[in-house]
Amino acid sequence: MLRLPALFSIGVHDIPELERLCGAKANVAQSSGEELASQGWVACTTDEIITTKKHLYDIVVEMPPTYDAPPSKRIWPTMKTADGAQIKASQRDLMRYKLLHWELWKHKQEDADTEEEDDDDDDRVALLSKRQKDSEDDDAFNLPLFDDTIIEPTTWSRLAYNGFMWWASAGEQHAYTLSERELDRDLLGDLSDYHEGLPTAIIAYFHRSTTLLVNNLNGLIEREDEDEEDEGEDGVLLVDRGDLGRMGLDTWSEADRAFLSEFAWLGWGRGVEVRGVGIRCCGVGIGAF
After folding, report:
1. N or C: which end of the chain has fewer CB within 10 A?
2. CA 62, 55, 253, 219 torsion-angle sign
């Protein structure tokens, strides 16, 4: 898999070079997905004027100036496309965020307990003060941890489906939700296993998440190609609810489905059709969207 070139910090003086890179990207727009991907880049800047040059980038991540505000007043990063459309986290992203936040909080408590065991009696006063602050952090854990404006709202189809499954077959609905949560937990793993440090553990988690998406999609495409060779037919790749879940995507998110279609086209030159989620009642299939 190709690595995205990092330009690190850039400024207005780099605009001509960025225009050159974008021009090179346009020249290979009709080439293979691999050549197109090789023209991408990632960078950071403190010159906000660059964000007005919409022909230079696809996505911009706006970072807040500080993170030391309490959770209830925190300003969260935002992601937008060049045309100004906001990219929001899905409901499954939110669940993963809560899981990561919880595991980080537990990791912090475990470190505090280890430090308590190693401290001498002369340090008890300082330790009590630290534990008091940790108690305040425990209270902060229960405060709002995200901004609703950066999260996709729950869709009506998801509400209807979950309500129906709770009434008709709560076990099936629970099993499906549980399988996704178990997959997400397995991807995160145990943060204490990384002796290189917590930042390395978090980076590895996101790397595994990306690898999961790529490997699952590539496997589906390879199997589809083999079937097409046997049957002599050309067609788009059909993806169902289970496939989306195994890729780590949100079944109910229209943005995730659109992303998968674009990603498959850019990376493999393949069209994708996402099948709608269905409900089965008394052997009859009912489309949820």
Report:
1. N
2. negative
- Both tokens of 51, joined, read 């964000």
Low-confidence stretches of the chain (pLDDT beneath 70):
1-2, 23-39, 66-69, 71-72, 111-146, 156-177, 228-234, 276-289
Cβ neighbours of 178 (radius 10 Å) = 10
What integer pLDDT is reported at residue 221 of this predicted model?
Answer: 92
| 20 touches 56 (CB < 8 A) | no
Q: How far is CA 180 from CA 66, 208, 225, 244, 258, in A?
A: 33, 15, 27, 10, 20
DSSP at 64: P
> Residue with structure tokens 């008709």?
168
- Integer angstrom CA distances of residue 289 from 32, 136, 165, 274, 281: 33, 45, 15, 11, 16
For 65, the token pair is 């100036």
What lies within 8 Å, CB to CB, of 221 at 6+ separation is 237, 264, 268, 270
Q: How far apart are CA 70 and CA 246, in angstroms?
A: 35
Under 8 Å CB-to-CB from 6, ≥6 apart: which residues? 41, 42, 43
Looking at residue 88, its pLDDT comes to 92
Query: Which one-letter amino acid corresponds to residue 287?
Result: G
Q: Rounded CA gap, 179 and 185, in Å?
A: 10
Structure tokens at 118: 């190693």
Output the six-digit token pair for 64.
């807040």
Q: Are the C-beta atoms of 249 and 260 separated by less than 8 Å?
A: yes
pTM: 0.73
Of 91, 90, 88, 92, the closest CA to residue 77 belongs to: 88
pLDDT at residue 134, rounded to an integer: 47
Residue 197 has a CB neighbour count (10 Å cut-off) of: 10
